Amino acid sequence: MKYLKTVQLIVLIIGIVIVYHLIFNPDIGIHLLWNILIPIAPALLVVATGLWRNICPIASISLFPRHMGFSKKIKLSTLQVDKLNLIGIIILFLIVPLRHALFNTDGFATALLLISLSCTAFVLSLFFDWKSAWCSGLCPIYPVEKLYGINNKISFPNAHCDKCYNCVSPCPDSTSNISRDTSKNIYKKLSSLFLIGGLPGFIYGWFQIPDYYQIPNISQLIVIYKVPMLWSLLTMVVFLVLKKFIQEKTLIAIFAASAVSCYYWFRIPALFGFGIFSEDGMLIDLTHVLPVWSIQIAVYLTSVFFFWWIVFSKQKKVSWMIRPVYGRYEKNIYSNK
Questions:
Q1: What is the DSSP letter of 73?
Q2: Rounded distance, CA 156 to CA 241, Å?
């Protein structure tokens, strides 16, 4: 547990350093965030979702009021959390295309985005209990965690929760295969369709758009959203059709593996100068060092690994984290049932 607390602090400091550079040294900050940290994140969510849930810097900021004892600890119902999940997915689909128009090239704007998300997480924690409102609610990355972490094999201690107060049910940290929650309300159904069905197409469409180094005009801004949304709609339709023929568990795994494989199919070449759009998303130019076939082998192997891990390897039914002992409030005058 102590090592996780140490890693939490280190990652939080790294996050602060990245925000500093985004403001004062934007070229460095953009490379640190978009070309180093973010490319690692999807793979980490696949193989060690619980580790990321423990060390995410915005999660640490979000839970600060609760750890310090000045949260009002309002309880959210399952329906309220489902509504927040759907809003989080909508936020994700609104923010990510704006990377092409703004965040990939403007360090200050990206810093404001990170600060805004952190402040939102902090304010929510002032009122709502533990992880219910942000980490398991409004966070736009949480739905991706649920999808990519479908076949978890490593369970970590819970470095944030010393006791379990049932802040959200079912607890995503302590429930295996959480992406297959079978709630039937409309918010849960829409969330599943948009993310599970739509994410592979969304990712593919996103990589078909170049970054704009000047403020895009209206027609360019429309394209930034139209292309990933149309591809997302296409894979949603495919998902709905295949649901009639393929077992739900297997289908979710296939779409999860497809989404993360598609990401690295385009991201790995771009990092080393082999991307579709010259310098977009490039960390270092290795086009004069590495042959093209070496990059092709890398993306093939990456896809094979993700399909093996998520789809074909045995489901161990291991939760992301080990559930701590249950706690009980003496009295919670703010309970909202």
A1: -
A2: 37
